[in-house]
Amino acid sequence: MKTLRLKIATYSIALASLGVIFSGCDSLTKTQKGAAIGAGAGGTLGAFIGKAAGNTALGAVIGGAVGGTAGAFIGRKMDRQAAEIKQTVPGATVTREGEGIIVKFDSGILFDVDKTALKSAAQTNLQNLATSLKNNPQTNISVIGHTDDTGSDSHNMDLSVRRAQAVKSYITSNGVEGSRLSTVGKGEGEPIGDNKTVEGRAQNRRVEIVIVANDALKQEAKTQSGQ
Question: Is this prediction's pTM over 0.85?
Answer without folding.
Answer: no
